[in-house]
Amino acid sequence: MTRTIADQLVDTLAQAGVERIYGIVGDSLNPITDAIRRDGRIQWVHVRHEEAAAFAAGAEAQLSGKLVACAGSCGPGNLHLINGLYDAHRSGAPVLAIASHIPSSEIGTSYFQETHPTALFAECSHYCELVTNPKQMPRVLQIAMQNAVGRGGVGVVVLPGDVAGLPADDALSHGVTTDRPIVRPADVDLAALADLINNAGSVTIFGGAGCADAHDEVVALAERIKAPIAFAFRGKEHLEYDNPYGVGMTGLLGYGGAYDAMHRSDLLLLLGTDFPYVAFLPTNVRVAQVDIRPERLGRRSRLDLGLTGDVKETVAALLPLLRKKADAKHLDEARDRHEQALKKLDIYIEHGNANGPIRPEFLTSTLNELAAGDAIFSADTGTPTIWMARYVRASHDRRLLASFSHGSMASALPHAIAAQLLHPDRQVISLSGDGGLSMLLGELVTAVQYRLPIKVIVYNNGALDFIKLEMLAAGFPDWQTDLPNPDFAKVAEATGMLGIRVERPADVRDALQRALSHDGPALVDAFVEPNALSLPPHISIGQAEGFALAMAKEAMDGRFGDVIDMVEANIRLGRP
């Protein structure tokens, strides 16, 4: 049998370590999917929507650090990949997207299902090229893979179905280089950073995803200079555990003493973070920044010194240059404020099993307690992400997934599917919003089809809750945020999952234990307090005024009962 371009593509991906391709089969993909079937080394994961395919590929790539692929047929098929590819690309996940295309002879004629993928995918990829000649294929594929792995993000190969069936040209054939160099600033720049730290009266560290694999170095730095450690959400899983200097998160999802620690220091040290919410960053302190990506230096905050380097290597080289600080006043005060803030958050946990609707804080805290020490959590954008940020505690082995940088709804379930396929023996838990789950509800069937024992916890508050909060904070009454949901437990049962419906706080622990111990996929439909406020610990005067204005508008609009419900829900236990 003649070796085709499709055969060449599959063989190259297998040699590059790709274990799974997520997608939906289609006519223009037939040569590729048939090559996968015949080759047998790569698993084709049949999702129900291509958006889920791209979400899943991005999640597996983030967890494994290896190249993962997704595929979509021509026109509408690969168009559905775009949202998930944006999520993967902005997360730095090495993903190869195969976008099959209409017959090459018809390109440019407004043919059935014709789109222009090279234009459509340009913004959510490092590299996107159309293959029209067999001699192109080996190099285009290698360049796309190398961009995805080397730069962290998406590479796209656009391949017409007829071209995929042509005889292959083997002019170039080699693997993907995955070795990464050691990158740290020059000695003179390290000395400048050391002088800045040594001469500062107080220092606060703020870390992000760039602190992966640098936990011990960052904690050692904090000990040396008596600095509290705050972190962005993507830094939580790397810095929160085994850290006596941690003071929580700042930002819209923040908790604890992070905000105050950052604003009350003389020097703020940004390590591997591209934190986007500039309103939460101080403007009257000195700032030094270390990041492996030089284009990120100074683009979010004022900058006194910016250094390009890997956080682990940079901090390791910096430590011998630092004098050990004796004054721990700033650190002690930051930790005291952090402990006081946590006590306020704990109110909803301590009293969450009282009569009334289930508090989402209580639900998440109980889940955190019952979950395995190496569990993988995924969370939908919106309030599930907030509850994960505040009440799911990181550990050395736990992993946290969310649409951190893209902020897309509906990511939690496909992220969980990929996590469970990658780690079949680990506990995988999806914190799904009712709105997010509804968007890609069909992926419950995918979980059942592949017998994946994922646990889906649905925060069923009957509303697009975070959108509602954003409206109120901006001074608008909430409108069109209500969700008349189905019985998700019965929907789960209809797909072949274990479905559990829980409405009372007293039943939460038993429901979660039953789901977590079930040998197969399970869904807990938890009816949570719809008026639970998830405001950050520090809000602007404008946000407070907007919230008050929105409440007044609702009252004047005849919705006074809704106002009373929200006030009662958050005053009843003492609003943090």
Overview of the structural elements:
The chain is an alpha/beta fold and 576 residues long. The protein is 41% helix and 16% strand. The protein has 25 helices and 19 strands. The strands form three sheets. A seven-stranded mixed beta sheet has the order 10-9-8-7-11-12-13. It has a six-stranded parallel beta sheet with strand order 2-1-3-4-6-5, sandwiched between helices. It has a six-stranded parallel beta sheet with strand order 15-14-16-17-19-18, sandwiched between helices. Helix 1 crosses helix 2, helix 1 runs parallel beside helix 7 and helix 10 (215-225) runs parallel beside helix 13 (311-318). The longest helix has 17 residues, at 329-345. The termini are far apart. Mean pLDDT is 91; it is low at 549-568.
**Total count of helical runs of at least 4 residues:** 25
How does the major sheet shape up? Answer: 7 strands, mixed
Helix content: 40-55%
Task: Identify low-pLDDT runs.
Answer: 549-568
Radius of gyration: 25 Å
Main β-sheet, spatial strand arrangement? 10-9-8-7-11-12-13
Structural classification = alpha/beta
Roughly what fraction of the amino acids lie in strands? 15-25%
Characterize this entry briefly.
It is built from 25 helices and 19 strands. The protein is of the alpha/beta class and 576 residues long.
Task: Describe this protein with a few key phrases.
576 residues; 7-stranded mixed β-sheet; 25 helices; alpha/beta; 16% strand
Which helices and strands, and how do they pair?
Elements: H1 5-15, E1 20-23, H2 30-39, E2 43-46, H3 50-64, E3 68-72, H4 76-79, H5 82-90, E4 95-101, H6 117-120, E5 127-130, H7 137-151, E6 154-160, H8 161-164, H9 187-198, E7 203-207, H10 215-225, E8 229-231, H11 233-239, E9 246-249, E10 255-256, H12 258-263, E11 267-271, E12 286-291, E13 305-308, H13 311-318, H14 329-345, H15 347-350, H16 360-370, E14 376-379, H17 383-391, E15 399-402, H18 412-422, E16 428-433, H19 434-439, H20 443-449, E17 455-460, H21 465-473, H22 488-495, E18 498-502, H23 508-517, E19 522-527, H24 541-556, H25 560-571
Parallel strand pairs: 1-2, 1-3, 3-4, 4-6, 5-6, 7-8, 7-11, 8-9, 11-12, 12-13, 14-15, 14-16, 16-17, 17-19, 18-19
Antiparallel strand pairs: 9-10
Helix pairs in contact: 1-2, 1-7, 3-5, 3-18, 10-13, 16-17, 16-23, 21-24, 24-25
